[in-house]
């Protein structure tokens, strides 16, 4: 029997790849496989995580160089087939740079690198990434970014709102993001990008377990 | 083949807040500079490139600017080109 396997992409400069793998394997018993960015063979993974970090040293713009890796080129087919892709922090930046998600992530309004726990409202249940079946809920996840201010034009924002593509909003906007946006999905719901780090909230001993549901939902079909 | 020196300027769109520019403006005022109304920071990229004439080179540079040098969601670009 084949086990469900989550591919964790490793770029030069990724630094949350091991955390994601630890959270999936150690906390959720979900098998993972590291995927080097030069690989374009995604045939033996069932879902993909683009982890946080500083791919290619954030040269030019965060995520701008990673976008041209063979793996990201292969991601188009993977996404079209309906398989699930989660981009966390730098992974979210890569997803916007490569056009899988609209908008862009730019320098925080106050220029600080913000490393903190934040309260987030779950806004949409699209894609089943969050445990909000009853009504609007709040979760607490850590953020750690210098360039996490979500920016888009007013037409894109309207589309995000109208099509329920906004997944998470900050309760107390830490970085100046448009409309307090912390995470969005694509229209189909199988691609989620978010600035907070669910993999850092998967065990009570490190401060909370509000990230477990999102990582676990990678195995949804 | 002709060789060209290209200078590409990438700027944040006017609608995008530039916190680094704001911080630098604040420091400029502390330095004693008067009359600064606005200060925004962009990037300049220098490229030396070969091609068959200016039109072909412009096509290449347009592609580079549009797909790589600038993210047109947040940035505008322009460039100047000099035949070497």
From TrEMBL, chain B:
GO terms for molecular function: ATP binding; phosphoribosylformylglycinamidine synthase activity. It catalyses: N(2)-formyl-N(1)-(5-phospho-beta-D-ribosyl)glycinamide + L-glutamine + ATP + H2O = 2-formamido-N(1)-(5-O-phospho-beta-D-ribosyl)acetamidine + L-glutamate + ADP + phosphate + H(+). Keywords: ATP-binding, Cytoplasm, Ligase, Nucleotide-binding, Purine biosynthesis. The keyword Cell cycle does not apply. One of its GO terms (biological process) is 'de novo' IMP biosynthetic process. Its EC number is 6.3.5.3. It is found in: Cytoplasm. Its main location: cytoplasm. Pathway: Purine metabolism; IMP biosynthesis via de novo pathway; 5-amino-1-(5-phospho-D-ribosyl)imidazole from N(2)-formyl-N(1)-(5-phospho-D-ribosyl)glycinamide: step 1/2. It is an enzyme of class 6 (ligase). One of its GO terms (cellular component) is cytoplasm. It comes from the Bacteria. NCBIfam families: phosphoribosylformylglycinamidine synthase subunit PurS (TIGR00302), PRK05974.1 (NF004630). Belongs to the PurS family. Part of the phosphoribosylformylglycinamidine synthase complex involved in the purines biosynthetic pathway. Catalyzes the ATP-dependent conversion of formylglycinamide ribonucleotide (FGAR) and glutamine to yield formylglycinamidine ribonucleotide (FGAM) and glutamate. The FGAM synthase complex is composed of three subunits. PurQ produces an ammonia molecule by converting glutamine to glutamate. PurL transfers the ammonia molecule to FGAR to form FGAM in an ATP-dependent manner. Part of the FGAM synthase complex composed of 1 PurL, 1 PurQ and 2 PurS subunits. This is Phosphoribosylformylglycinamidine synthase subunit PurS.
């Amino acid at each position: 029997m084949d086990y469900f396997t989550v591919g964790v992409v490793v770029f030069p400069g990724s630094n949350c790849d091991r955390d994601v793998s630890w959270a999936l394997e150690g906390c959720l018993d979900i098998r993972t496989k590291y995927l080097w960015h030069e690989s374009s063979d995604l045939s033996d993974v069932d879902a993909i995580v683009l982890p946080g970090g500083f791919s290619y040293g954030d040269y030019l713009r965060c995520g701008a160089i990673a976008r041209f890796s063979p793996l990201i080129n292969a991601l188009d087919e993977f996404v079209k087939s309906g398989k699930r892709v989660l981009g966390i922090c730098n992974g979210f930046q890569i997803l916007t740079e490569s056009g899988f998600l609209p908008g862009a992530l730019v320098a925080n309004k106050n220029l600080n690198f913000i490393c903190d726990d934040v309260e987030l409202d779950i806004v949409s249940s699209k894609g089943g990434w969050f445990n909000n079946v009853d009504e609007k809920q709040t979760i607490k996840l850590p953020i750690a970014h210098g360039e996490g201010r979500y920016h888009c034009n007013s037409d894109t924002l309207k589309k995000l709102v109208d099509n329920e593509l906004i997944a998470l909003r900050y309760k107390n906007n830490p970085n100046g993001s448009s409309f307090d946006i912390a995470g969005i999905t694509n229209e189909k719901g199988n691609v989620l990008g978010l600035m907070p780090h669910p993999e850092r909230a998967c065990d009570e001993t490190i401060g909370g377990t509000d990230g477990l549901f999102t990582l676990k939902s990678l195995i949804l079909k | 083949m002709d060789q060209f020196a290209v200078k590409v300027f990438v700027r944040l769109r006017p609608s995008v807040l530039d916190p680094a520019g704001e911080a630098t403006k604040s420091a400029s005022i502390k330095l004693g500079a008067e009359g600064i109304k606005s200060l925004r920071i962009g990037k300049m990229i220098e490229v030396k490139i070969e091609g068959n004439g200016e039109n072909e080179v412009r096509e290449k540079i347009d592609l580079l600017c549009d797909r790589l040098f600038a993210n047109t969601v947040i940035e505008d670009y322009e460039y100047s080109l000099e035949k070497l």
